[in-house]
Structures are given as structure tokens and as C-alpha cells.
UniProtKB/TrEMBL annotation:
InterPro entries: JINGUBANG-like (IPR045182), WD40/YVTN_repeat-like_dom_sf (IPR015943), WD40_PAC1 (IPR020472), WD40_repeat_dom_sf (IPR036322), WD40_rpt (IPR001680). CDD domains: WD40 (cd00200). This is Uncharacterized protein. WD repeats lie at residues 180-219, 220-250, 350-385. Keywords: Repeat, WD repeat. Residues 25-52 are annotated as: Disordered.
């Protein structure tokens, strides 16, 4: 692990239901509480008062804080959970990092396919894999392995309840028949909302799973090509696809999901990611394989933004307040500020990765007038950046856009 420079005062502290039990995995307590019982630990609470970095004053330029290594494969996805951040790789491993000191807390994972996406719900972690399965991990108080594999979706119970009935089988693109509860290709993205897990796959389907009993409730033939991105926002589900469309789905009273709107991107351009934010109006942004970011505004989803963000494909997007961050196959991270009407103004470019930037996650830690930005790349590294919230904006040109490179120490 290599640290560069950073901060000493955290202006906010977070708690996590997922990992509150993890701290007592090595405890000598003789209580017989179940794995679901929340556990408080002063060990983790004290970490908020410890920080290995130097001060960052208010304002100033972007900073490279740390380069975290340890993955055996390319870093493919990130998830924040309270004072922890989880990173997963194509090497099938998941690392849990502790904030703010960025120390490695745990490492786990297994499966026959690389990890494409992960989300956290309560005391569980859901991981989506290239082998078309979703694995469920649970924080365990009794096991030395803090994260214990408890299920694989679809579950055996769900499978046995359907495999005898021929009407439960569907034809796949490889001319094989499968149960409708099974994905037929890599699961590329996950989203969670109101007790449901949504999974998008290269098999073009969107499936809905219930968190409480892990049952598959619905399978939707959502797109004409692979689904690359999913996000849930205020009861609506947004799916981005290689067919160049973002589709908006809403849940009906009967529990099924119906198509509400279709947002059309550039012709013959894959949409690789989607994010949603809201000021006075709803804003939806999609990142394309042509390096462009497109934005739609309001309930009518009017196109309000088309910007050439990168020289190569936009692979990921994230949002923090009025800022939008984009990661690209050109190895750079773009920092954008939302203007009135949903337009994006470029305020900086971060360079440092030695490979394409596959995933981004902005932390809600407010530090020195800025926020923390995590980036995972195909160079197998997880990098941490400090992004100032107060920065002079500039027009996007080749000569005056600030370029931020990783500090060398």
C-alpha cells in the first residue's frame, strides 16, 4: 500500500449495518446471539479519530491520497458501506478497506467467474459473476472467515420448485433451454431498492430478486443487446445497454415492472453506465463507448447535454452533489460540474492509472472542503483522490483544462 498525501480532520462520521458485526469476529465474547444481531465495537468507532494523512486546506488542487494494491486481477467494481469500501476484481477476490486510514480489513471471494458488480444490503453482500450467478455473503460472528458464503442465486429451493414444469423454460440465444430464473450470460450490474435486488446481464434480461427469501420474482426481456449499467432511484429502475438505449422501468401495483420511457443515445454507440441525480428537476446521464456523456432532464426526459468527455469509451460514472465524475478507457477521470439545465462543465482531469478506469465511487466523507473519490482500474489498483468542491471552473480546451497527475513521492 502506498500513501501520497491527504487529510487529518473528518467532518462527518458514518455507521454501517453491514460490518458492525464484523469487528467481533475475533472477540472472546461467549454470547450466543445469532449472526443477524447487530454488534457495536469500539475498535471501529475509534478509527474515526485516527488518520495517517497530513492536513488538506480548504480549496486547492486535486490530490492523490493513496494507491491500494492487493487484488489479483483488474478492479471491476466498488461499493461503499459506512466507514468501509469494498472493491472486487476479475480475479474473483473482494477486499474490504477501512476508512479513513484505508487499511485492509478483510479479503474473501470465490466462484467460477470474475466479479462484475456488488451491492450491500443489511448484513449481506451480493456479488454478480461472469459465470451468470449471484453469490450472497453474510457477515458472520462465529466464523473466522468474517464473510461467509450463504447462498448462490438462483437458490436450489427456487430451482427445484420450477424445473419440472416445461413452461418455466425459455430459449436462450445459444439455442439452449434454461429456466427463466437463470441468467444465460455474465451478470454485469446490480441495483437494490426497497427489498429487491435487480440484476442486468449480457443475456439482455433484467431479473428481479427478493432480498428476504432470495427468490426470483420476475425476468424482463429488457434490451436488444447486453445490459451494462443499472441504477434504482425513487422507485424507478434505469438500465443502460449496448443497444444504445437507457430504459426506465416502474413497478406496477401487481408487482410487475413495466417500461415507462426509452432514452435514445447515439447511433451504434454502446451505453456503458448510467447515473441519476436531482436538483430542481430529475437528471439522467449516460456514458457511451464514443467517449460522450449524454444527459436527459425532467419527467419528459428532454435531452439537455451532449459532451465529448474522453478520447475513448466512458466506462463508468458517479455523482457527488453537483459534481459528476467519469472514468474512461483512456485511463483518465473527468471531473464535471453540473450547470443550470443539466449541462456539464469540465473542471479537471485526473491521470494516474496505468490502465482503463473501470469503476468509480465518491465517498460522502467531507474533508477539507472536498470529497474522496475512489477509482478502480484494469491496472489492478484502487486509487484514492481528494476532489475540492470549490474550484475555479474553466472552459474545456486542450490548453487550459487542468490536468491532475498522481503525485510521486
Amino acid at each position: 500500500m502506498v500513501y501520497s498525501s491527504s487529510f487529518s480532520v473528518l467532518e462527518s462520521t458514518l455507521s454501517t449495518p453491514l460490518l458492525s458485526a464484523a469487528a467481533s469476529a475475533t472477540s472472546t465474547s461467549s454470547t450466543s446471539d445469532s449472526d443477524d444481531s447487530p454488534v457495536n465495537s469500539s475498535r471501529f468507532e475509534s478509527q474515526h479519530d485516527k488518520c495517517p494523512f497530513q492536513d488538506i486546506p480548504n480549496g486547492g488542487s486535486y490530490r492523490s491520497l493513496a494507491v491500494l494494491s492487493g487484488h489479483v486481477g483488474s478492479v471491476s467494481c466498488l461499493a461503499l458501506c459506512g466507514e468501509f469500501i469494498l472493491s472486487a476484481s476479475q480475479g474473483k477476490d473482494i477486499i474490504v478497506w477501512q476508512q479513513p486510514d484505508l487499511r485492509q480489513f478483510a479479503k474473501f471471494g470465490q466462484g467460477d467467474g470474475s466479479i462484475k458488480a456488488l451491492v450491500t444490503v443489511g448484513n449481506k453482500v451480493f456479488t454478480a459473476h461472469q459465470d451468470s450467478r449471484i453469490r450472497v455473503w453474510k457477515v458472520s460472528r462465529s466464523s473466522e472467515n468474517v464473510f461467509r458464503l450463504v447462498a448462490t442465486l438462483p437458490t436450489t429451493k427456487d430451482y427445484l420448485g420450477k424445473f419440472m414444469k416445461q413452461s418455466n423454460y425459455v430459449q436462450t440465444r445459444r439455442n439452449h433451454r434454461r429456466l427463466w430464473i437463470e441468467h444465460a450470460d455474465s451478470i454485469s450490474c446490480l441495483a437494490v431498492y426497497n427489498g429487491l435486488i435487480y440484476s442486468g446481464s449480457w443475456d439482455k434480461t433484467l431479473k428481479v430478486w427478493r432480498v428476504s427469501d432470495l427468490k426470483c420474482l420476475e425476468s424482463i426481456k429488457a434490451h436488444d443487446d447486453a445490459i451494462n449499467g443499472l441504477i434504482a432511484y425513487k422507485g424507478l429502475i434505469y438500465s443502460a445497454s449496448a443497444d444504445g438505449k437507457i430504459k426506465v422501468w416502474n413497478k406496477e401495483v401487481k408487482g410487475t415492472h413495466n417500461l415507462k420511457q426509452v432514452l435514445i443515445g447515439h447511433k451504434d454507440v454502446s451505453l456503458n453506465s448510467v447515473i441519476v441525480c436531482e436538483d430542481e428537476k430529475l437528471l439522467v446521464y449516460g456514458g457511451g463507448s464514443d467517449g460522450c456523456i449524454m444527459g436527459w432532464e425532467g419527467e419528459n426526459y428532454k435531452l439537455v447535454c451532449e459532451v465529448k468527455a474522453h478520447n475513448m469509451a466512458v466506462l463508468c460514472l458517479c455523482v457527488m452533489g453537483e459534481f459528476v465524475c467519469s472514468g474512461s478507457a483512456d485511463k483518465s477521470i473527468g471531473i464535471w460540474k453540473r450547470e443550470i439545465g443539466g449541462r456539464l462543465l469540465n473542471v479537471g482531469v485526473i491521470r494516474g492509472h496505468e490502465g482503463p478506469v473501470k469503476c468509480l465511487q465518491a465517498s460522502s466523507y467531507n474533508v477539507g472542503g472536498g470529497f474522496l473519490l475512489y477509482s478502480g482500474g484494469l491496472d489492478r489498483s484502487l486509487r484514492v483522490w481528494w476532489v475540492p468542491k470549490e474550484e475555479k471552473t474553466v472552459k474545456k480546451t486542450d490548453t487550459n483544462t487542468p490536468v491532475i497527475t498522481e503525485d510521486k513521492y
